[in-house]
Amino acid sequence: MELPNDFNSVVSQAWQRASAVPGFLAELEFRALALLGYCAPNDGVIVEIGSFKGKSTLALASVARRYGLGPVVSIDPHTAPSVTDPDLKGKSSSFDDFLATLHSANLEDQVEVYRAFSRQVAARWDRKIRMLWIDGDHTYKGAKEDFDLFAPHLVDGAIVALHDTLNKSFDGPIRVFVEDILRSDNFGPAGFSYSMGWSQYRPTDGRRFRKQRERLVRKAARLIPFVTAGQRMEGIPKLQYKLLRSLIPHSKLPNTEALKWQGA
């Protein structure tokens, strides 16, 4: 998929704003997320579950604004404390800071804000989804619920991405990515970019990519016993985890050529 000439410039400008926003999204992940947002099909909306103070929202909304890709739907209760969010240092909510981030980037009208838990929004959701970015509750129960509630609304060719699939502190993202996406013939091209796992929803021809996904499963599934052990990882287990993680093929940016298909 050929990118616009100004794409890198647009993303770099967005990162300049986002770099000062608290959050766990690194620059390479920010750029990968923006790229996936651009490559998703035109039909439907981008849904972001877990916004915190708006770092990833800037990546998605900046690209959506520049290239007319429709709204970004932000879903986050903005409550504290949360085990997956940075310390709010006594504040009860990240909501005001989130709104300030959107305002500073002039993106308020590009983002539909739902200050609610994902299950509350899903209860009345009836819109098509072109990209689903899951970065909320990182427990298995939370990540699984987010995926199960919104996956039925994916359009053919939609992109699904989960943050922290290669983070030793969380079991939810890696389990959902391996068990519900990589092992499913409803999905086609897939990969890891930095700590992010992503795949394209391809229910009509996902079987063609089974071998590719199975190669990723064989390596990524080895991490699951380490993150589900229920105890702090240190010593030899930590070294084993790092070794196994290093063996998983992952790139700085997704291969956009793999996302080409007749329905996109």
Write the topology of this structure:
Layout: H1 7-18, H2 27-39, E1 45-49, H3 55-67, E2 72-75, H4 95-104, E3 111-114, H5 118-122, E4 129-134, H6 140-150, E5 154-162, H7 172-182, E6 187-193, E7 196-201, H8 210-220, H9 224-227, H10 235-246
Helix pairs in contact: 1-3, 2-3, 6-7
Can you describe what's shown?
The chain is an alpha/beta fold and 264 residues long. Helix content is 39%, strand content 16%. It has 10 helices and 7 strands. The protein has a 7-stranded mixed sheet with strand order 3-2-1-4-5-7-6, sandwiched between helices. α1 runs antiparallel to α3 and α2 runs parallel beside α3.
Low-confidence stretches: none
Q: Give the overall pLDDT as a whole number.
A: 92
Distance between the termini: 10 Å
Q: Tell me the radius of gyration.
A: 17 Å
Strand content: 15-25%
How is the main sheet built? 7 strands, mixed
Strand order of the largest sheet: 3-2-1-4-5-7-6
User: CATH superfamily membership, which one?
Assistant: Vaccinia Virus protein VP39
CATH architecture: 3-Layer(aba) Sandwich
Q: What is the count of helical runs?
A: 10
**What is the N-to-C order of secondary-structure elements (H for helix, E for strand)?**
HHEHEHEHEHEHEEHHH
Helical content, roughly? 25-40%
Shape: globular
